[in-house]
Design a protein that fits this description.
Bound molecules: pantoate
CATH architecture of the largest domain: 3-Layer(aba) Sandwich
CATH class of the largest domain: Alpha Beta
Distance between the termini: 46 Å
Order of helices and strands: EHEHEHEHHHEHEHHHEEE
CATH topology of the largest domain: Rossmann fold
Helix content: 25-40%
Number of helices: 10
Strand order of the largest sheet: 1-4-3-2-5-6
CATH superfamily of the largest domain: HUPs
Strand content: 15-25%
Structural class: alpha/beta
Length: about 290
């Protein structure tokens, strides 16, 4: 496994790989690797000649009051996970390498999927993501890039970016991997205290609960949401706050509140964001009606 920190050196190496007509599978990460990352890396290894994992905690996608400084950065542990999985290259640039001018003069802003869900509560977040991902795509020039469905809005933003900027990269959505009790894997789970962790799977249960309510077709979507919020509030016995609990279609378009009016074979998606103590957790679940 080769660890690359220098952008110019990385560009030469990745260009050579593509010249040899080898395919590059790219797994972008902010480190603090967990089981879901491992599954995605294994998938990339199966589907491409060379797998590149980037480890870069991108300051641009954190708001001024967010957790950039305390975001977990267990770099050596991350490297040993990548080594164990036989990753070919880890690309881990410094902040100075990625943003040499301190001020970032060029920003990528995808003006779709805005004003809802995470974009509503984390203004500027997706600009930060789109900007760093564009830079990473330009440096690595992958054949395929893997993005988890847990960050569903991010996945759609990246797909739009690839379409609009004519990148010839295949964006591969990866299903959400969960702990045995249903909690979606996330680097932020590391922030949870033991008691918070024990109750965090109520978030997943509330999505299942909402899905079941929708499928009965007895209630409007707003009622399903209200009942699910009540379920969540009743079952998490620790300080918490629901930031959003919403339902859209799979393309993040609003859907008819009356389930019976929605065309059969439509896939809806339930989205939730919850502060459990100080930790913000997000999750989502598709519902085929
Ligand atoms: O999903 C993430 O871990 C990050 O948003 C990403 C895509 C690596 C960009 O920093």
């Amino acid at each position: 496994m080769i660890v690359l920190k220098n952008i110019q050196q990385a560009q030469v190496i990745f260009k050579n790989i593509r010249t040899k007509r080898q395919t590059i599978g790219f797994v972008p990460t902010m480190g603090a690797l967990h089981n879901a990352h491992e599954q995605i890396i294994l998938r990339s290894k199966k589907e491409s000649s060379v797998t590149v994992v980037s480890i870069f905690v991108n300051p641009l996608q954190f708001g001024p009051k967010e957790d950039f400084n305390k975001y977990p950065k267990p770099f050596n542990k991350d490297l040993s996970i990548c080594k164990k999985l036989k990753v070919d290259y880890v690309f881990a640039p410094t902040i100075k390498q990625m943003y040499p001018d301190k001020i970032v003069y060029t920003n990528i802003s995808v003006k779709k999927y805005t004003g809802i869900l995470c974009d509503k509560f984390r203004p500027g977040h997706f600009n930060g993501v789109a900007t760093v991902v564009t830079k990473l795509f330009n440096i690595i020039n992958p054949t395929k890039a893997y993005f988890g469905e847990k960050d569903y809005q991010q996945l759609l933003v990246i797909k739009q970016l690839v379409k609009d900027l004519n990148f010839t990269i295949d964006i591969v959505p990866c299903e959400t991997f969960r702990e045995p009790d249903g909690l979606a894997f996330s680097s932020r789970n590391k922030y949870l205290s033991k008691t918070e962790r024990n109750q965090a799977n109520v978030i997943y249960k509330s999505l299942l609960y909402c899905k079941q309510l929708i499928l009965t077709k007895k209630f409007s979507l707003s009622k399903c949401i209200n009942y699910s919020k009540i379920f969540l509030n009743k079952n998490i016995l620790l300080p918490h706050k629901i930031q959003y609990f919403e339902i859209y279609d799979n393309n993040l378009s609003p859907v008819n509140n009356d389930v019976k009016q929605i065309k059969p074979n439509t896939t809806l998606r339930i989205f939730v964001a919850v502060y459990l103590g100080k930790t913000r957790l997000i999750d989502n679940m598709p519902v085929n009606i």
